[in-house]
């Protein structure tokens, strides 16, 4: 077939067949892009599922098992407390004791000096009043003496309050207050009535517990 005959034959093709062929090619390509889009979305979802919990837990110590995190220091057992303080500008009150040297199972209580039941070997330990402060991943965490667990105290403006004397709402307010920077604490102009100390009721003098 010469060039003229080929050209004549091509001109006889109905344009609708050409359009159908082009549309078919486009339809064949579309599912590929959809497939890649779905794969990318799934990948983003996996990254979020793995990353977000780690970010949210950045303010908590590593907790790997059955019992609450504990450390045994100077023949005393201390337990991680839910009432964490802001230790900004309080490092001068710390007394360095040493580092966590060994660990036991998370289902056991540590019984040797500088031993923990969590993965914090190497963490620095400080004495803070009657309690222990442990430096974990650049953040200080408070551990209370186990004998004082039933009579655990919280601090507000230099005063220690027995937790059992405070309502749940006040404890939640204290947790929030102690978590904000000192400059923002100064701007707080309303405090729960239970924390007024004019008559000293319900408070424990911090100096008496040292």
Question: What order do the helices and strands come in, and which of them pair?
Answer:
Blueprint: H1 3-11, H2 15-56, E1 70-73, E2 76-80, E3 95-99, E4 102-103, E5 115-116, E6 124-128, E7 131-136, E8 139-145, E9 153-156, E10 159-162, H3 168-179, H4 182-185, E11 203-205, H5 206-209
List how many beta strands DSSP finds.
Answer: 11
Estimate percent helicity.
Answer: 25-40%
CA-atom Rg in angstroms: 32 Å
Uncertain segments are 53-59, 199-210
Number of helices: 5
Q: What is the spatial order of strands in the main beta sheet? A: 3-6-7-8-2-1-5-4
Number of individual domains: 3
Distance between the termini: 107 Å
Averaged pLDDT, please? 75
Task: Label the overall shape.
Answer: extended
Brief overview, please?
It contains five helices and eleven strands. With 210 residues, the chain is of the alpha+beta class.
Features:
210 residues, alpha+beta, 3 domains, 3-stranded antiparallel β-sheet, 5 helices, disordered C terminus, transmembrane helix, Entericidin like toxin protein, membrane, transmembrane
3D structure, described in words:
The protein has 210 residues and is of the alpha+beta class. The protein folds into 3 domains: 3-57; 70-150, no CATH class; 152-209, no CATH class. The chain is built from 5 helices and 11 strands; from the N terminus they run ααββββββββββααβα. It has helices at 3-11, 15-56, 168-179, 182-185, 206-209; strands at residues 70-73, 76-80, 95-99, 102-103, 115-116, 124-128, 131-136, 139-145, 153-156, 159-162, 203-205. The strands form 2 sheets. An 8-stranded mixed sheet has the order 3-6-7-8-2-1-5-4, with no helix packed on it. Strands 9-10-11 form a 3-stranded antiparallel sheet. It is extended, with a radius of gyration of 32 Å. The relative contact order is 0.11. Residues 53-59 and 199-210 have low confidence and may be disordered.
